[in-house]
């Protein structure tokens, strides 16, 4: 379907999988930059002077960056104009009697390519503008555009046009064969195939009755998901404890809790909400196992009203898959992923689970020994069990007692300016690029003035003839009304226009990094360094896309279960001693970070990593189990409590004790269209990321040759070819899990 490209938000999804960011969430370590920067009147430049003085004229961008001079009125009038123009366009397209590549496909491609920047600008501003009126207008524009987009995606007359062309092309080797078709014809074929498939997946190849049924099902699924996350977001539940019961929790955290007097006992009680900053410290530091048990289960059992929404959605999804000709919802959903079907996913998950088990058992032995020692010290009975509510506590205790990484101190070596410059330098070396900050006031245009950096990116394969790649923006620190996480927003894809000219892409990193304070510059914590590297990985993916059709370039073009792999791979650099050392520069003294500090940090990377991975596998397997039912009765008869708890005990090896809970009522991922039958994707992508890193970079992380191969095979091809074929070509063999298992400590 002719779909508007909306901003691709990849908020470090890898993050939730990352052992380290969770383990280290208390302590943040900033990174350091090595970089040499020029100071001029405009302030610090990112411009890396590393490279000899080059001919500045060679670096004049052939394409201006977009302008950001929007008013609230213009945002809405532009959105309406785009919708009107689009309506006219589609009406003209469906009126064509004999649709062909020339009169239908190419105009459709051009129309989509040409409109994406304007649309993305309008919808992006809600996340970043300083002006509330602009944010509100952008939100309103987004709603208009999204609704319009849904309408278009369900236009039967458009489907009929694509269907005619698809049937003409599908057996035509001039178009559909990668080996014999020209790249342009092949892209045209893939475009038609993709649009056609999207329509078919929306049910447009079915009778009107069935189409209406699908529309109804999708509407109900969307409402359920909305309500599910609304319930989750608005829940105000808490669990209350006395001061004594909370022994071990720090004074700072205790101060966060509201208190009240229990009417029956007259005791003072502390309200622990289920928001992360409240509940996590309790699970991590409360010494009393019974407190942890109560807190853990209360948190897991929150939002009970979500259960019926969840079950109803499972049934609707099963119905949807069935109407569309799939035996299960999972197979419907996986059809367009790299994994392709549920057997592949199940095999992947079960194999990992079996392989990780021995390693996780060893990890548990260590944790149990700590538990035993502590029981002796505290004069508590030791029962030789390790329960689910013990895990965060002993994991945290182990990290603190054994490693004691001082993340604040580490951050002092990583002031934002020099660190980011150093990180760009690494990207420059590995992928043979060059970043040049735009400091000319007449040429720079951003949505928030100097809060945002604008950089031109160049490819340096021929150093005497730099090749422009596109524009990237960095909007790194918090601001009122700004998006509060880290994400890459693709603003405009790379494409070839109707005059055969390359139109360059625009992309933006939006982060929430610690800002400067009165007495310190902005210092990056280690997890922020990793986040920057990760998000920049998505940004570069966006920039180096080499296809002619915008929708085939960038992270949004690859199957959902591979999207994170490139960025997860780049995170490896931020765990290397050499790179971390080179990035470091103490904000006061300019000194490099002491190696011992880095070693203490790096040593924690995979502490209890197998247990962490098994917990992810529990989520992934539960997700698959509930989405592979083959009739409604199975869903009715499914004992969700047993399934959730039973699987957890079996897979993650921590015991349930005498209490089961309903953690699935707050398992937000499972209600999203992208992650349902898709949670496995985190690990799936991590396995490829690790494989790529170890086979091509581990020995020599700054190897430009490997970097260029990676850039050109994995990134630049976007989604035009099978991801697995790209991987095989890059690796020189079939991808394997070996590196991933080894990274976690399995021999
Ligand atoms: C569309 O429906 C027709 C008629 O039922 C069928 O022959 C054809 O295979 C379907 N096409 C796809 C792509 O499902
Ligand atoms: C973003 O940063 C601000 C200021 O440091 C902080 O209060 C807020 O919690 C952060 N947002 C998220 C989602 O962490
Ligand atoms: Zn990501």
TrEMBL record:
<dbReference type="GO" id="GO:0000324">
    <property type="term" value="C:fungal-type vacuole"/>
</dbReference>
<dbReference type="GO" id="GO:0005794">
    <property type="term" value="C:Golgi apparatus"/>
</dbReference>
<dbReference type="InterPro" id="IPR024080">
    <property type="entry name" value="Neurolysin/TOP_N"/>
</dbReference>
<keyword id="KW-0482">Metalloprotease</keyword>
<dbReference type="InterPro" id="IPR045090">
    <property type="entry name" value="Pept_M3A_M3B"/>
</dbReference>
<comment type="similarity">
    <text>Belongs to the peptidase M3 family.</text>
</comment>
<protein>
    <recommendedName>
        <fullName>Peptidase M3A/M3B catalytic domain-containing protein</fullName>
    </recommendedName>
</protein>
<keyword id="KW-0812">Transmembrane</keyword>
<dbReference type="InterPro" id="IPR024079">
    <property type="entry name" value="MetalloPept_cat_dom_sf"/>
</dbReference>
<dbReference type="InterPro" id="IPR024077">
    <property type="entry name" value="Neurolysin/TOP_dom2"/>
</dbReference>
<keyword id="KW-1133">Transmembrane helix</keyword>
<dbReference type="Pfam" id="PF01432">
    <property type="entry name" value="Peptidase_M3"/>
</dbReference>
<dbReference type="GO" id="GO:0005758">
    <property type="term" value="C:mitochondrial intermembrane space"/>
</dbReference>
<keyword id="KW-0472">Membrane</keyword>
<dbReference type="GO" id="GO:0006508">
    <property type="term" value="P:proteolysis"/>
</dbReference>
<keyword id="KW-0378">Hydrolase</keyword>
<dbReference type="InterPro" id="IPR001567">
    <property type="entry name" value="Pept_M3A_M3B_dom"/>
</dbReference>
<dbReference type="GO" id="GO:0004222">
    <property type="term" value="F:metalloendopeptidase activity"/>
</dbReference>
<keyword id="KW-0479">Metal-binding</keyword>
<feature type="domain" description="Peptidase M3A/M3B catalytic">
    <location>
        <begin position="282"/>
        <end position="745"/>
    </location>
</feature>
<dbReference type="GO" id="GO:0046872">
    <property type="term" value="F:metal ion binding"/>
</dbReference>
<feature type="transmembrane region" description="Helical">
    <location>
        <begin position="21"/>
        <end position="38"/>
    </location>
</feature>
<keyword id="KW-0862">Zinc</keyword>
<keyword id="KW-0645">Protease</keyword>
<dbReference type="GO" id="GO:0006518">
    <property type="term" value="P:peptide metabolic process"/>
</dbReference>
